[in-house]
Amino acid sequence: MRDAFAQEMTRLATERADLTLLSGDIGNRMFDRYKQVAPERFINCGIAEANMMSVAAGMALSGLRPVIYTITPFTTTRCLEQIRVGVAYHQAPVVIVGTGSGLSYAELGPTHHSLEDMAILRTLPGLNVLAPADSFELVAQLREALDASRPTYIRIGKKGEPPLHGKSAQAGIGKGNLLREGSDLLIVGVGPILSEAIKAAERVRSDGYSVAVASLGGVKPLDTTFLELMAQRFTRWLTLEEHGIIGGFGTALLEWQSERNGPTISIKRLGVPDRFIHELGDQSYSRHLLGLDSTKLAQTFRTAIIE
Amino acid sequence: MIAASPSPISVAELSATALTLRQRLVTTSATAKIPHLGSCLSCVELLVALYWQELRIDPANPNDPDRDRFLLSKGHGAPILFQVLAERGFFPLARLEDFGKAGSVFHEHPPKPGYIPGIEAATGSLGHGLPMALGMALAARIQQRPTRCYALLSDGECNEGSIWEAALLAASQKVHSLTAIIDFNKWQATGRSQEVMALDPLAAKWEAFGWHAQEIDGHDFGAIAAALAAARAETERPNVIVAHTVKGKGVSFMEDDNNWHYRTPNPAELTAALAELEPN
Question: Smaller CB count within 10 Å for chain A: N or C?
Fold first, then answer.
């Protein structure tokens, strides 16, 4: 996903003279081509994220389109006040990209996990909070964010995330998409973790269960039109996110549900429990540990359908 | 179109303007109960020098993309900045009659741009203005605009780590179009700035961070003008002017008394203060 980001940024740098990339001293070699295309519009801001965020806000207020890139905890919770004051309050059209989100850096420990970012950032007025499921969604959202008059946060994975969309899909900010058809149960979620849901849906197919999987692309704005369409078709929903269970995508859906007047649906949330994860392994180990890999998810799907 | 440099103005005229602004500031503080009087009084000469002698700005065209940018990084100095902007013609002085009233934008800190002409950024939480000014200076370089960027900091604000993060990046990027001015009045909210966070030697710290540092009397118009001119002549390093000032300057019973960080004058104090702020 990060390679797709780098490639798209290089394309965008040739298309628009206002695009500027700020890196928090990461992405070694990743942006070599970008730097060839727009050397004056790449700034390594060092390991100083608070300053980097305010610098980006100042650039955006002067008419540039800055994109900030570093590892998710450092570009979100580390500099939350700079996002709140410089970016969100000013409605400075900065694009904040967090790489290695969720448990992508599982083995690096809780300092590098990001399981709170969506919950915290979606409280800030006027900030889009996006979590693309694959590179297709990422590219569409990035392009749209650079034309938007408001700031955008995009949390992405690391590398090797499989493509989940068909070529005819319509991705973008606040656009929901059905990734896999089904009839017994709807899995609705955000981020690359949806690949586990699709694999799990395949697993339970042999048991005669039909599970649909949808991507919402982010937690703010929510595609409520798409959600209502899904509510016409499914009564049993599970939300899925590689993020803490408190305050993120699942919570956003419960908030939506509590204020709507459509057909009754049952929503249960799947995510990381309310604790720091200290049993370290790679991302697939961690997903398995937390019941979020395709094997464990398949069991959860069966139970949800039988109940 | 912004003029290449502001029209020349005499020190006597600058001093008269400073006096008028102090009168209005003290009066507003008393009537609208607006605090941070000491912090505002210490930077009057710095603001007057900037707005009447230095900044390439056009109050009739406050969003000209080529304009210089001034950010009040010490956002609690907003009460004096609002007076400066009105006097400089960014908006009618009558707008300040709303100062402190419910629903008004004229309160204790600058709002985001779009509400008050001439305000470039919302500040108030310390440590944001200098990094944002750095971003604007880097943007001007990328956009090949003549813009210079200025940020006025308090000495207490130099407690914030983000100030020193900005200092490091500005030096590595050689942003010589950036000038930080520190209103070094030796106080922060609850104590001497040197005692709270060991700021001294302040100018040497900036010098060590790779900045062109100058130390001046921040109430001396001649010294301010000379320092700003030397900053403009710098071709490599970012600039800092450490301006030694007196908190509460201009009103004898407020000078160097940190109670005026939070207090506002009662009617008798207002009368006494205004008596001291009469032209000689």
Answer: C
